[in-house]
Recover the amino acids of this structure.
């Protein structure tokens, strides 16, 4: 009998295998046709592919068995708090902590510092990301409480981003739009999204489908704005 923790893992493993197989075949085609890499290097790549398969399978199984249920339970508990506005500061704190632990955010911060030769410090970018995502999660909690439409956040947000591009340091524009994708990493999406859906399911008058989702779009938007604002500060600092 399969333990409860591993139920459904074969289905997840099959999905991961189908996702990785085209990439592996693509590499093998180029290896035979063009690369002709040494045997040892090819074996290392194949071993890495196996590790990636195992890692992704275990991660997604862990998300299914642990992150989603825990996040929904936390969200349901937050949703019944009185007054329910306490969801906003708690969401802010959760967003900061989740982003601080996000591997992709740390990698991008390191790359920015390395490529800029230290001109843009890693810690500055990291905390800018964290604050941006924290604000996005807080806004998501506000949406759940008020029932406001997502369009009231997304449309003005992207119009503001287009405006800020004109005044921000050009070096920060590309970083900003990469930040939106990086911030929506596995920890944020799997854990915080589950909290938002759980909260929307218990707040009176809210529909989890309408009010619980949409959080990821805000997480992708607000870090763009925060990095562009950081670019404006650097622009003015350079002019001074």
């Amino acid at each position: 009998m399969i333990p409860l923790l591993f139920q459904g893992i074969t289905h997840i493993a099959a999905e991961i295998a189908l996702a990785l197989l085209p990439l592996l075949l693509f590499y093998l085609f180029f290896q035979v046709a063009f690369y002709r890499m040494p045997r040892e290097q090819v074996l290392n790549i194949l071993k890495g592919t196996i590790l990636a398969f195992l890692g992704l399978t275990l991660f997604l199984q862990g998300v299914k068995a642990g992150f989603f249920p825990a996040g929904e339970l936390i969200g349901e508990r937050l949703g019944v708090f009185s007054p329910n506005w306490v969801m906003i500061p708690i969401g802010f704190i959760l967003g900061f902590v989740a982003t601080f632990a996000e591997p992709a955010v740390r990698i991008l911060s390191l790359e920015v510092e390395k490529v800029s030769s230290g001109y843009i410090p890693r810690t500055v970018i990291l905390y800018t990301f964290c604050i941006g995502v924290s604000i996005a999660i807080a806004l998501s909690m506000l949406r759940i409480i008020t029932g406001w439409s997502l369009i009231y956040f997304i449309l003005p947000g992207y119009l503001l981003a287009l405006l800020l591009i004109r005044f921000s340091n050009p070096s920060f524009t590309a970083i900003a739009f990469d930040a939106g994708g990086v911030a929506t990493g596995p920890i944020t999406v799997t854990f915080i999204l589950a909290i938002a859906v759980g909260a929307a399911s218990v707040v009176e008058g809210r529909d989890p489908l309408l009010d619980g989702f949409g959080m990821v779009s805000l997480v992708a938007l607000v870090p763009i704005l925060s990095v562009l604002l950081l670019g404006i500060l650097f622009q003015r600092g350079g002019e001074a």
